[in-house]
Amino acid sequence: MTTWIPVCPLDDIPTLGARRVARPVGLDVAVFKNSSGEVFALLDRCPHKGGPLSQGIVFGNSVACPLHNWTIGLCNGQAAAPDEGSTPAFAVKVDAGQVWLDADQLATLGTDLTRPIAGPKPCRSGCA
């Protein structure tokens, strides 16, 4: 049986936008609302270079990554062709104006994934 955790009121998620849900372990989860009022949840990490999907542009049932404009499906976290890859999608439900996420998925799904570190590579040959 699924245990659901309330994460925010539905009205806290802007239409065509997102809100981030922090987890004790792992990256945040992005909760999206499209123009039809449907709600989706993905790990807040693009499969390409780790961009924050919560800052992307929502259109239809997709979000465009703010870094390189990859299109990611909100239903399943899959990148649209010709791009390849996916980010974990979380079960979400809305009840009485409250958004709920699956507690087990929050505790386990994608907790091993990290965001790439930007910047120059460290010098390995005794640079000053």
User: N-to-C SSE series?
Assistant: EEEEEEEEEEH
CATH topology: Rieske Iron-sulfur Protein
Rounded to the nearest angstrom, the radius of gyration is: 16 Å
Q: Unreliable runs, pLDDT <50, ≥5 residues?
A: none
Mean pLDDT: 93
Briefly characterize the structure.
This protein is mainly β and 128 residues long. It is 5% helix and 32% strand. The strands form 3 sheets. The protein has a 4-stranded antiparallel sheet, with no helix packed on it. Strands 1-10-9 form a 3-stranded antiparallel sheet.
Keywords:
4-stranded antiparallel β-sheet; 128 residues; 1 helix; Rieske Iron-sulfur Protein; mainly beta; 10 strands; 3-stranded antiparallel β-sheet; 5% helix
Give an account of the 3D structure:
The chain is mainly β and 128 residues long. The relative contact order is 0.23. It has a single domain (4-108), classed as Rieske [2Fe-2S] iron-sulphur domain (Rieske Iron-sulfur Protein), CATH 2.102.10. It is built from 1 helix and 10 strands, in the order ββββββββββα. It is globular and about 60 Å long. The longest helix has 6 residues, at 103-108. Strands 2-3-4-8 form a 4-stranded antiparallel sheet, with no helix packed on it. It has a 3-stranded antiparallel sheet with strand order 1-10-9. Strands 5-6-7 form a 3-stranded antiparallel sheet, with no helix packed on it. Strand 2 and strand 3 (29-33) form a beta hairpin. 5% of the residues lie in helices and 32% in strands.
